[in-house]
Design a protein that fits this description.
Number of helices: 3
Mean pLDDT: 90
Helix content: 25-40%
Structural class: alpha+beta
Number of domains: 2
Shape: globular
Largest sheet: 3 strands, antiparallel
Distance between the termini: 56 Å
Length: 119
């Protein structure tokens, strides 16, 4: 069983979080647990960062994405995180520049060789 507990949220045992003290309800729409469901946690963070220019606290999509990676680093080895980010590929996070939303890309695709040698 996952022991994730942070900021009033805990893993409810099925890879998703709930507020501490709330009764378990499988039908609740909840966030993936960053500890035991890290892949889905980062996939959802990718989606959020690509549609959120700025949230009510002022955090932009790119900052939210970077915060999610920092959270994932607590629970994964560097090799596991690298492999997971490569599977996610490119994140086109939104940021704010001079009051306008702009895309800030993060490319995690594994580099491939582009050298071609003629036979």
């Amino acid at each position: 069983m996952c022991d994730f507990l942070e900021n009033g949220f805990m893993c409810r045992g099925d890879g998703f979080t709930q507020e501490v003290g709330e009764p378990y309800n499988i039908n609740d729409i909840v966030d993936p647990c960053p500890k035991c469901n890290t892949k889905l946690f980062l996939e959802e963070a990718k989606i959020t960062s690509e549609v959120l220019a700025k949230d009510c606290s002022g955090k932009t999509g790119d900052k939210a994405w970077l915060a999610s990676i920092q959270k994932a680093k607590q629970f994964l080895t560097e090799a596991e995180l690298t492999a997971l980010l490569q599977s996610i590929g490119v994140v086109n996070a939104l940021s704010m520049v001079d009051g306008k939303a702009v895309v800030k890309p993060f490319n995690y695709l594994k580099p491939t060789s582009t050298l071609y040698t003629r036979p």
